[in-house]
Amino acid sequence: MALNAHVSFTWVGHGTWKVRSAKSKEIIIDPWVMGNPVAPEALKKVDKCDLMLITHGHFDHIHDALEIAKATKPKIVSNFEITSWLGSKGIEGDTLIGGNQGGTIDVGGIKITLVHAEHSCGISDGAQIVYGGQACGMVIEFENGFTIYFAGDTDVFGDMALIAELSHFDVAFLPIGDFYTMGPSRAAKAVSLLGVKTVVPMHFGTFPPLIGRPSALQELVGPSVDVLDIKPGDTV
User: Fold this and answer.
1) Where are the domains of the chain?
2) Listed residue (155, 152, 158) closest to 186, CA to CA
3) What DSSP designation does 24 have?
4) pLDDT band at residue 1 using 50, 70 and 90 as cut-offs
5) CB 191 within 8 A of CB 230
6) For the segment 140-198, what is each residue's pLDDT rounded down to a tens digit?
7) CATH superfamily of 8-227
8) pLDDT of residue 2
């Protein structure tokens, strides 16, 4: 299914996506690529990245950020604490854009608004876990105006309705795996709060505890909502 004729989203697996924008910018969201156990081999090589978006600092969302960033030198948008940590690891400061929840960051006509998420955010740094600020979701408006809500890792929360009211998107990328995020039953409530008619599920099936499946969410939300049944490597 094509969400938009000019923007494509390829699921690397887990919470990681490769995106081509309306003006053919190459974007990686939550870069767990080379070490991702469910990623197809063809997607594990990153030759180009213009923009990297990071919702939070857990290893399964940031593990390959440093390697990809050093090789491709993208602009990187995340919260202030994560971009500061990346800078301490040798990423050039002029590529780092650290914001916070409520702020909108414009990178070449792609507008990223950091929004609330119900999740923790510690960065694994050697034997330590360091403070990574607050986990975020993102509302992403592409150059042609097409807008998505990318929830990142989160539980359902009531202010999803407020995010939807302020942002006017038609598609939500939602975690459904359970255990570390909401599962299908709580994701169904998120769909209701967001008022969306198209849902792209993610963060499921990677590890045995992540038992949520798109079919379970589809059954709960009914035929008026289209829940995409995807596998790693699929493009929508």
Assistant:
1) 8-227
2) 155
3) -
4) low
5) no
6) 999 999 999 999 999 999 999 999 999 999 899 999 999 999 999 999 999 999 999 99
7) Ribonuclease Z/Hydroxyacylglutathione hydrolase-like (3.60.15.10)
8) 76
Structure-token match 């997607």, residue found: 43
pLDDT tier for residue 5 given thresholds of 50, 70 and 90? confident
Residue 70 host element (H or E): helix 65-72
Tokens describing residue 21: 């924008």
Q: Write phi, then psi, for 114 (nearest 5 degrees).
A: -80, 130
Q: At what angle do helices 184-194 and 214-221 cross, to 10 degrees?
A: 50
Q: Measured between alpha carbons, how far is residue 51 from residues 95, 106, 127, 136 in Å?
A: 9, 11, 29, 17
CA distance 7 to 143: 9
What residue type is assigned to position 106 of the chain?
D
